[in-house]
Write a structure and sequence with these properties.
By secondary structure, the protein is α/β, with parallel strands linked by helices. The protein is built from 20 helices and 13 strands. Helix 8 links the parallel strand 6 and strand 7.
Length: 399
């Protein structure tokens, strides 16, 4: 007798969630084929997930923010999407739900599933980083209340949620898998038509709309300072979303940068670079895994920063993932008022002009890699998800 199709719903948002979701969709399909299972994967995500084979219920790749003030423009669109998705899930219940990052919206999705579809198991993959900057236990408890299995990407994350009573499996970081197909520096330069000795800096300012306002101008002014000192430099900007191109082009012209924008080649641009100037985020880990030195910065709305510091008493030892994983200041990072073009440019020039500084960072990257797990992360995560799905269906008497 032919088995029924297994339906999995994956909920994520932003550019990084779309990337991680696409890698998971591909792995789920590989693992399902080995088990002779047929999957239907529905999702909130973006173009990458759709290309991997998921059926999108809504495109959320451009819906995302960091901060209280920054989230306000997305409230209504998020609520509309959530209302539509909840109706879809109620009418056509999935067999399992996977949540990837996207904290606020996924709390809403997870709470709904718990209340309306209590028989449907839930998995949190790439959970919010409460293990780093939890203000109190409240958010941790909410995450665990809506999660049957948490798939951790960092060892410290696994320990934190396990100690809080969660059912946790450490699978490793999915970027370990992604960089296996990355080009070498020489290959990347050949693909981009760059000479071997050309000085190249990857400029990575934005995957969220708010970053076009708070991050892009600072990084471009820092690049302007670097260009004044090193006139031979070329800046390459990999687009995270095509809709950001006009803002990027305007910034290049405003600051007089020798820069080129490319779409769909982010990994190639990073691999070809001598240095990356980047916003804080998942991309910092990809840069590290590609062995490229980097300087990291981030700014948010001043009101959000004031609330976080004075009302929420927020503090974290570091913000960029490489520094967080190692719990040491491996790469320079500049936040809020410290994130000035002059400081960023000085740190970049220090790395570019001193071999020892570059070697220190790259030696740290080797230690970092050991903290991110072995190759096969996405297939391990997919295997855990399908095992949980199989157990849940057997307990309900479904084959």
């Amino acid at each position: 007798m032919k088995q029924r199709i297994r339906r999995i719903f994956i909920s994520t948002g932003e550019v990084s969630g779309d990337l991680q979701g696409s890698l998971l969709v591909q792995a789920l399909q590989r693992q399902a084929a080995q088990r002779y299972l047929e999957l239907e994967i529905l999702a909130l995500g973006g173009e990458r997930m759709a290309a991997a084979g998921a059926k999108l219920l809504a495109d959320t790749s451009a819906i995302g923010s960091i901060g209280i003030v920054e989230s306000l423009p997305y409230v209504l669109s998020t609520l509309r999407i959530q209302r539509r998705v909840k109706q879809q899930l109620r009418q056509h219940p999935p067999d399992l739900v996977v949540m990837i990052d996207y904290f606020g919206p996924n709390l809403g999705i997870g709470s709904f599933v718990r209340q309306a579809l209590p028989q449907v198991p839930t998995v949190y993959y790439i959970a919010p980083q409460e293990w780093v900057w939890s203000i109190n236990r409240h958010n941790t408890e909410r995450i665990l209340q809506i999660t049957d299995r948490l798939l951790a990407i960092f060892p410290a994350e696994a320990d934190y949620y396990r100690n809080q009573g969660g059912s946790v499996t450490w699978v490793g970081h999915p970027l370990i898998d992604r960089v296996q197909s990355a080009p070498t520096r020489a290959q990347a330069r050949q693909q981009l038509g760059l000479d071997a000795d050309q000085l190249v800096i990857a400029l990575i300012p934005a995957s969220r709309r708010q970053e076009l306002k708070y991050v892009l101008p600072i990084l471009c002014e820092a690049a302007q300072h670097i260009q004044a000192q090193l006139p031979q430099v070329q800046f390459w900007i990999p687009l995270s979303l095509e809709q950001y191109r006009p803002a990027m082009e305007a910034a290049i012209q405003r600051y007089g940068l020798q820069a080129r924008i490319v779409s769909g080649q982010s990994q190639t641009v990073i691999a070809a670079a001598d240095l990356a100037l980047a916003k804080s985020g998942t991309v910092n880990l990809e840069i590290a895994l590609l062995n490229v030195p980097q300087v990291v910065m981030y700014r948010i709305h001043p009101v959000t920063a004031w609330i976080a510091e004075h009302l929420l008493k927020f503090s974290a030892p570091f913000v960029s993932p490489p520094n967080l994983v190692l719990m040491e200041p491996l790469i320079p990072e500049f936040l809020q008022t410290q994130a000035t073009p002059e400081r960023i440019a000085a740190a970049a020039l220090d790395i570019l002009c001193h071999d020892q500084r570059r070697q220190e960072i790259q030696a740290g990257y080797q230690r970092l890699r050991q903290q991110l797990g072995a190759v096969g992360v996405c297939d391990r995560a997919a295997g855990e998800i399908l095992e949980l799905l199989d157990t849940a269906l057997r307990n309900r008497g479904i084959t």
